Amino acid sequence: MIQTDLSNEPSQNFIQTFRRLLNRVQSSWKTIVVLVPFVWLLIFFLAPFFIVAKISLAELVIASPPYSKMIEWLDGGIITIKLVFDNFIYIFEDPLYARTYLNSIKIASISTLFCLLIGYPVAYGIVRSSRTIKPLLLFAIILPFWTSFILRVYAWMGLLADQGTINNLLIYLGITETPIRMLYTEFAVYIGIVYTYLPFMILPLYANMEKLDATLNEAAADLGSGPINTFIKVTLPLTIPGIIAGSLLVFIPATGEYVIPDLLGGGNVQMIGRQLYNEFARNIDWPVASAVAIVLLLLLVLPMAVYQHYQGKAAEGF
Amino acid sequence: MKYGRSRFLTIMLFLGFTFLYVPLILLIIYSFNYSKLVPVWGGWSFRWYYVLFDSPDVWKAVSLSLKIALVNATFATILGTLAGLAMVRFGRFKGRTLFGGMLVAPLVMPEVITGLSLLVFFISLKQLIGWPSERGFTTITIAHITFSLAYVAVIIQARLTGMGETLEEAAADLGAKPFKVMTSITLPRLAPGMFSGWLLAFTLSLDDLVIASFVTGPGANTLPILIFSRIRLGLRPDINALATIIILFVAILVAIAAVILFRQQKRDLLDQEMANLEE
Predict the structure, then answer these.
(1) Is residue B41 part of a domain?
(2) Between 20 and 30 A from A110 (CA), which of A2, A18, A120, A279?
């Protein structure tokens, strides 16, 4: 008896520990599910912003990396903390930056408006289509959104160039004799932003419109409301969450856009994303680049918070 | 919505799709142009495809981009699925607001800000603990996972909301523990969503230029970085050929994803009807 007990004990123990471990995993798995992505985002998404903030308060030095240290140990164990606000003062005093920020906001706003004017009727048209072609139309909207962003911008370089497709066509038709300059102008930047960001406008609008109750429109029609009146008084107010979500999904990234002003605007269109990249890559002035990023982030924090509020309401269409 | 389209909406649909597709179609047509000047038609030819296949730079960039995209998609799908589950199925937990904010912010954050912040983060980390010793594959992949997981989480959250909890509740009523319910009901039903999330993460990674430009190191050129450096100086017919291949490749991937999701939605409806019947 004793012998069998002894021989059984370790394996019994093992099974018990295994069971306990399994129970532990089963009861704490929820914590693991939350913690893994949470910690990842804290390290690789949130922490980097604090480092940018730190560098924006440093001085440019000729070293690698090219900024001064915030905290230094002096002899005798004294810590000095050095904060330099010069970069922010520089940005606020040099009119170039103010103009560039304002120009970015202007270009992003006007592009967003055009995306809305084109995207709204397209989204509404898809919602009103028959059940058989609706998934196909939706697929056709999503497809360009998945294909390469940079190649979509490149496609417009070919269309807008002095010897490009549009100018060739205009000259062939006799509308103009000399090519009209379109590439490397602000006009090209507008086209590029509207073109590449249009799906971001259509998808939240579609998701919002798809959930509307058709009986409301029928009720309005039964009560003698015309289609335009019904649209303005019923449909439009109900799609405001979609309009806000779509507009912010275009406006926020467009404000910081770098590739489009660089490729389609050349050196002629000043936008803050391009300015930031140049400070960082050409001038190797990381402290100023960081300060530019912090100011841009502060400008966009409010729109981002509003977007987070509305995205759950409208943007389930991805 | 039931009724048909007005003529105005049909015209707008037509114009909208023309606007979206004509530039891409022209881009593809001109890739078969013999002429060295992109917009001048010199007859049909595969000339630029041969030029493309003969350039080792392009192949190196393609293989680096594909490697990053594969690793990124896999990790982003795992992390994004966990995040989506946490947001939709776990009710309130500590830090949920911050977590939700960090999941939404990468979707709209200007890429120059994300790129710059990750670069200075990697450099500070290297000073602190000596890792990552060099920038390239590892740093680009980590950067891509960070924003891709947010997109995967959006897809997973939408799928979880759309799926409802009828089947899970039925399983719980029959005595299944929450962990068992998760592994044998929720996750299998989530598989198509995870698959399309994987594909989205894969294409987002292949597509990213700005963030990769910030966090890459010397010699590590991804495909978008290579394309960008070439087209900054103007139009190039070999880039048209490359564009055609990329567009067709992505279109096929997206079509596969769409078919799988569409089928799954039908099956979901059936499953839910069955569950309702049994109640």
Answers:
(1) no
(2) A279
**Where residue B69 sits, what CATH number does that domain have?**
1.10.3720.10
Q: Tokens 């922490």 sit at which residue? A: A47
3-state SS string for A95-125: HHHHHHHHHHHHHHHHHHHHHHHHHHHHHHH
Q: Can you give the residue range of the structural domain that contains B152?
A: 55-278
CATH of domain A86-314: 1.10.3720.10
Q: Cβ(A261)–Cβ(A306) under 8 Å?
A: no
* Beta bridge pairs of residue A79: A73
Answer yes or no: is B140 within a domain.
yes
Instruction: Report the predicted TM-score, pTM, of the whole model to 2 decimal places.
Output: 0.88
- Cβ contacts below 8 Å, chain A against chain B, sum to 277
DSSP codes, A250-315? HHHHHHT--HHHHHTSTTSS--HHHHHHHHHHTS--HHHHHHHHHHHHHHHHHHHHHHHHHHHHH-
Looking at the partner chain, which of A146, A262, A296 has a beta carbon nearest the beta carbon of B113?
A296
Interface test with B, best of A34, A130, A166 (most B CBs within 10 A): A34
Residue matched to tokens 């039964």: A222
Closest CA to A246 of A191, A285, A278, A206: A206
Domain ranges, ordered by start, for chain A: 2-56, 86-314
* CB-CB contact of B184 with B190 (8 Å): no
Q: Are B48 and B230 in contact (CB under 8 A)?
A: no
Helix ranges, chain B (H): 7-30, 47-53, 56-89, 96-108, 111-129, 137-163, 166-173, 178-181, 187-207, 210-215, 223-231, 237-278
Across the interface, do A158 and B207 touch by the CB < 8 Å criterion? no
Q: Indicate yes or no: CB of B232 within 8 angstroms of CB of A37.
A: no
Query: Could you give the angle at the alpha carbon of A134 between the alpha carbons of A312 and A219, nearest 5°?
Result: 70
List the pLDDT tens digit at each of the 318 positions of chain A. 444 444 455 567 778 888 777 777 666 888 889 999 999 999 999 999 999 999 898 887 766 677 777 766 666 666 666 777 888 988 888 899 999 999 999 999 999 999 999 999 999 999 988 888 888 898 888 888 888 899 999 999 999 998 888 998 999 998 888 899 999 999 999 999 999 999 999 999 998 998 888 788 888 888 888 888 888 888 899 999 999 999 999 999 999 999 999 999 988 899 999 999 998 888 888 899 999 999 999 999 999 988 888 876 654 443
Query: Predicted ipTM?
Result: 0.90
Pairwise CB contact (< 8 Å): A151 & B246: yes
Does the distance separating the beta carbons of B200 and A146 come in below 8 Å?
yes
β-strand partners of A60 = A67
Is B131 a domain residue? yes
Could you give the CA distance from residue B65 to residue B54 in angstroms, rounded to a whole number? 18
A220-227: long-range contacts at Cβ-Cβ below 8 A with a sequence spacing of 24 or more? A227/B6
Total structural domains within chain B: 1
Contact assignment for B12 to A125 by CB distance below 8 Å: yes
Set of chain B residues whose Cβ sits within 8 Å of the Cβ of A26: 177, 179
CB-based contact A58:A70 (threshold 8 Å): yes
In a domain, B253, yes or no: yes
Q: Give A290 to chain B, closest Cα distance, Å.
A: 8
Q: Please answer whether residues A161 and A180 qualify as being in contact, where contact means their C-beta atoms are separated by less than 8 angstroms.
A: no
